[in-house]
Amino acid sequence: MVSRRGVTAPFSLDGPQAFMGCMTATGRSRLLARYTFESEDWEQGATAAATAGPYAALATFSTLLHYGGSGDKLAVYDLRTGMLVKRLGGEQVTCDGYSCLTYMDELAINAAGDTAVHTDQTLCPQFASGCEQIQADDSTGVHIIDQAASTSPFQADSSPTLTNLALIKNTLTWQHAGTSQTTTLH
User: Fold this and answer.
1) How confident is residue 152, by pLDDT bands cut at 50, 70 and 90?
2) CA distance 116 to 26
3) How many CB atoms lie under 10 A from the CB of residue 57?
4) How many CA atoms lie within 13 A of 172 on its CB side?
5) What average pLDDT does this structure show over 119-147?
6) 126 or 82, which is more confident?
7) pTM for the whole thing?
8) Which of 22, 40, 45, 72 could form an S-S bond across to 104 if both were Cys, CB 3.0 to 4.6 Å?
9) Residue 81 Ramachandran class (φ > 0 left, ψ -120 to 50 alpha, else beta)
10) Mean predicted confidence (pLDDT) in 53-79
11) End-to-end distance of the chain based on CA atoms, in angstroms?
């Protein structure tokens, strides 16, 4: 996993089949996730990664191509052990059906394991179109921090409304349609 502290390391969907994490303090690398099986009906993998302190965050996805449906979930790993930390992360976006797609791209993590991620999906109950969200997980649980309608979230000519996600200590910042926003995670 290549990442600057707490900042997303993006890669394409045909990217790595395995993800390793390494604490610079110890130099010991650990296998965090491996994706060895895909078929014409199902695919899984990851879309982004970030590290901070003893933690690594990985935006994972699973798509059912044959039956329809898509889901993304943020997983946090302890780099000291290589194990998934179930009490951290947990942000997710899911939908069912052939015309529904989900995606996670920008993500951030701090040294305490608090996380934030930008999500996108083509069908949202609260909007008559697609939507994007900023979701965050801290000691109080997972929360939707901001959201916006998205008319064509998966077209090459579309631009996200929610951008520039960053998490410094417990201060989360982002932009909503070019306007700076901030909140404090607990």
Assistant:
1) low
2) 26
3) 32
4) 26
5) 89
6) 82
7) 0.85
8) 72
9) alpha
10) 88
11) 27
